Amino acid sequence: MFKKRNVILNSLLVLVLLVGGFFGYRTLYPAAAPVSVRTATATIQDVTQSVSASGAVQTATDIGLTFGGTGIVRVLKVKVGDQVRAGQLLAAIDDRSYKLALLQAEQSQANAINAVTNANAALAKLTAGPSDATKALQAKQLDAAQTTIDNANTAYTNAQAATKATDAQLALNAITYQNSVDRTRFDFEKKCNAIGGLGDTNTVGVDCSTAENSRIAWQSWQDSVQSQKLSLIKDTTTHNNAATSEENARRAILAAQDALSTLKAQQAVTNAGAIQSDVDAAKATITSAQRAKDITDVQLSQAQFNYDNTKIIAPISGTVAAVASQIGVNAANTTAGSNGAAGYIILTDLSGLQVKASFAEADIANLQVGQAASFTFDALSGVTATGSVASIAPLANSSAGSTVTSYTVLFTLDGNPDGVKPGMTAQVSVVTDQVTGVIAIPSTALTQRGQNYTVTLKPTKVGGVGKRVTVTVGLKGDSTSEITSGLKEGDLVVLRSTTSSSASSGFPAGGIPGAGFGAAVPAAGGGGGRASRGSGG
User: By the 8 A CB rule, do 220 and 109 touch?
Assistant: First the structure.
């Protein structure tokens, strides 16, 4: 009776726990209310992909013009804003000291030319030829040198044969050494097997290198291995000695050939008809005179350059952007600068403005020289311009402490937009790819898993589950993506939520298909629901 009452009480307790757990769960995890979804329509439209950056307006050409030396400015024919033409005199400094230096350099060069002429004439007088006795001696010397070469060739041939014989003997030695090692090893393994070692799985802990019956055989094997190593070292030395002898013989041939070449060169000098020391002295005189003339040539060129550069001549037509000082001031004490150019006078070309901007490495691969670009200007509301990519820097910009890699891109502007001046900030946009008249949807409707994309069609009823459709994506634009298959014009697709903080599960935000569209998904362990979202296209 007592046992039956305990069973009833326990059953009632379990029932109470089950009812309480059910209501507690429904309180903590109430059923999700139906939610409305954001949708978009697949339409025929253009898809554009672009990159953008901020840059600065600059002139196409800034040239800093300076004098070739120092001096007081005596002539100044321009002021800031003047238009000048190529070849026009702009300014000049006092040139009297430069003129004197030029005259002195011209005289030094004339003297050097006379010295070279006289040295060549002296060498031409040395025309004496060799006697018959000298010619006979030269022939004997040539024969002796040739005999030395022949003997060296014979010695080299013998050395090669000796090397081959030595290598053959050493090969036999190596076989003998290995046979000795193999025999002692075989004897050791035989005795080791006899006492249960070396593969005998029934015997444990037998060390054949110290066991009484195999220790001597093991030592003999080790001795033969050591002997083999020492013998091979010795044989290597023997081989090296033979090879050295062969190499020495080869070098002897080269030395004999060099000696013959030297002898022939010496005889050629002797047969020139002059004492070698006189010829060398005459040649040295010519060389010295020519070097002196070369120096005076450089000095004259420098003096001419300095004199010519006492004047500043406009190399191009343009506008005077800056002038460092006025007449009467030493030109070396003042410098004007503009856009990186520096000099006494700065010329600029305002007819062709440019924009220089830095693009991130992720965007630079999509840029090419010649691509069209559009511009706006921070300081000029409503002013726009067009242009194109002129150049792309091959090297990345260096910036201490920065983790962002960027590249400098130079753009040319089409014409000169009203009000745009060098130094203004410009916003650049470049269309890198575009397709027209294609089916497209907002990129936020796409869910990507690996290389595959899907979209969810709008549910047929509130709270329902939309059908997931696999699509093929063409061009992915700035905000929309081209759909080449899987959708037709007019299809309604669900836009992914941008407020979910959970990791992408490959499903669009709002729930897993089958759990009710927009329904919460309980986390592992029943700890509450969270919405999943796919990775955006």
Answer: no
